[in-house]
């Protein structure tokens, strides 16, 4: 799969996406929301390390540390379509907390916070 940007009626190739990852389809409305400056992609990126590419055609490519994390991020993105923009930060925090076993780096960060507070 390759990523192409259409500008001034000329196609500019952004390159071939790396092997691996997961491609899924979202509504065009959600694709636009994912491309916004303060989207759920940004919020998720504060808690989890992953790569993403979002197309205006509704195709999304996600690649995280492993398949479990990749699918967890996909599920959060898909669920976010039903969430108001103002509620996204709380929604992401709840989802990430409920998936601590999926995102081990969060467990280490939480342990450091507890150790520092003692």
TrEMBL record:
Major subcellular location class: nucleus
Coiled-coil stretches noted in the UniProt entry, renumbered to this chain: none
GO terms for MF: RNA binding
Biological process annotations from GO: CUT catabolic process; exonucleolytic trimming to generate mature 3'-end of 5.8S rRNA from tricistronic rRNA transcript (SSU-rRNA, 5.8S rRNA, LSU-rRNA); nuclear polyadenylation-dependent rRNA catabolic process; poly(A)-dependent snoRNA 3'-end processing; TRAMP-dependent tRNA surveillance pathway; U4 snRNA 3'-end processing
Compartments, record wording: Nucleus
Any one cellular-component term (Gene Ontology): cytoplasmic exosome (RNase complex)
Pfam family, one: KH_6
PANTHER family listed in its UniProt record: EXOSOME COMPLEX COMPONENT RRP40, PNAS-3 RELATED
Protein name: K Homology domain-containing protein
């Amino acid at each position: 799969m390759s990523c192409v940007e259409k500008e001034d009626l000329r196609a500019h190739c952004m390159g071939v996406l790396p092997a691996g990852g997961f491609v899924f389809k979202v509504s065009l409305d959600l694709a636009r929301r994912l491309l916004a400056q303060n989207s759920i992609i940004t919020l998720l990126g504060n808690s989890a390390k992953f790569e993403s590419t979002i197309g205006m055609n509704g195709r999304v490519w996600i690649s995280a540390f492993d398949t479990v994390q990749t699918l967890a991020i996909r599920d959060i993105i898909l669920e976010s379509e039903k969430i108001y923009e103002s509620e996204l930060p709380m929604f992401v925090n709840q989802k990430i907390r409920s998936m601590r076993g999926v995102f081990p780096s969060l467990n280490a960060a939480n342990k450091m916070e507890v150790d520092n507070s003692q």
